[in-house]
TrEMBL record:
Keywords: Ribonucleoprotein, Ribosomal protein, RNA-binding, rRNA-binding. PANTHER family: 30S RIBOSOMAL PROTEIN S14, SMALL RIBOSOMAL SUBUNIT PROTEIN US14M. The gene is rpsN. This is Small ribosomal subunit protein uS14. Binds 16S rRNA, required for the assembly of 30S particles and may also be responsible for determining the conformation of the 16S rRNA at the A site. One of its GO terms (cellular component) is small ribosomal subunit. The keyword Chloroplast does not apply. One of its GO terms (biological process) is translation. It comes from Erythrobacter dokdonensis DSW-74. Part of the 30S ribosomal subunit. Contacts proteins S3 and S10. Belongs to the universal ribosomal protein uS14 family. It comes from the Bacteria.
Length: 101
């Protein structure tokens, strides 16, 4: 089980990303638009820098839904490899079968 503070910090980041998503995307589009002149693009980048750091989507970490573990995360299931194996062996994940040869 991951530290509760780490899980809560990640949840706060998700909330901030959602809050600033529209503004961030708008500024990013302006900053990457090569048809605009350099000063407009620079101003957009400076405004992006004024946003909170945790409003950047890359700062959100994928974590296991049950344990909060950050490593070995499977996007398809939303859990980590250890939980995937445990739940798969118990037959609690539909469509997942244990491989044997």
């Amino acid at each position: 089980m991951a530290k509760l503070s780490s899980i809560n910090k990640n949840e706060r980041r998700k909330k901030l990303v959602k809050q600033y998503a529209a503004k961030y995307e708008k500024l990013k589009a302006i900053a990457n638009d090569t048809s605009l002149d350099e000063t407009e693009r620079l101003m957009a980048r400076l405004k992006m820098a004024e946003l909170p750091r945790n409003a950047n989507p890359t700062r959100v970490r994928n974590r296991c839904a049950t344990t909060g573990r950050p490593r070995g995360y499977y996007r398809k299931f939303g859990i980590n490899r250890i939980e995937l194996r445990d739940l798969g062996n118990k037959g609690l994940i539909p469509g997942l079968t244990k491989s044997s040869w």
